[in-house]
Amino acid sequence: MTATGTSATGTPETGTTGAFGLSKEARNLHWLLGNLVEEVPGVRSVAVVSSDGLLLLSSDPAAQDSAPAPEDRPSGPRGSSADLATIVSGIGSLTVGAARLMDGGGVKQTMVAMEEGSVFVMSISDGSLLGVHAEPDCDMSVVAYHMALFVGRAGHVLTPELRSELRKSMEDAQ
Fold this sequence. Notes:
This protein is α+β, with helices and mostly antiparallel strands. The protein is built from 5 helices and 7 strands, in the order E-E-H-E-E-H-H-E-E-E-H-H. The protein has helices spanning 24-39, 61-64, 81-101, 140-154, 160-173, and strands at residues 4-6, 12-14, 43-49, 55-58, 109-114, 117-123, 129-134. The strands form 2 sheets. It has a 5-stranded antiparallel sheet, with helices on both faces. A two-stranded antiparallel sheet has the order 1-2. The radius of gyration is 15 Å and the shape is globular. It starts with a strand and ends with a helix. Mean pLDDT is 81; it is low at 1-19, 63-70 and 73-78.
C-alpha cells in the first residue's frame, strides 16, 4: 500500500497510511511518489531527502505506517527508508563536491550500477534530492525519465513550509 490512494476519478486522496491531515501539496507529493514506485518497472524504493539530509518522503510503508511491504515488490536497502535516505544524501554530497572540484557546474543526476541493483539520485530545484533504488535489470532510461517527471512536478512546490510539514509527518510516523 502506498502513502496515499487514488479516487475513482484518478485524483490523489488520503488513506489510512499517514497522509491524513496533510496539506493538498503534501498529499500530491505522496501520490506522485506512490505512482513512481508502482508504475515504473524495476523500482524497489524511492526517497526524497532535504538538502540537509533529512528524509521528507519515502515509498517504504514502514516509514508511513506499520504495514509490511508487498511481497511482489522487493524492499529497499535492508528494507529501511532511512538507509536509502542516508545513501542518497551521501551520494549527493559526494557528487556536488566532485563537481565543484572539477568546475563541472550543478549536478543533475547520478547513477550507481551494482551487480544486484542500481541507485539513481536526481537534484530537485530546492536542493532536495530524489533517490531511487532499482532492480539491476531495470530500464535505466525509463527510470530516469520518470524521475525527471517527478522532479518537474515536485520541484516548484517544495517550499520551506512544505519541507517542514513533510519532515514533521515523517517524524510523527516513526
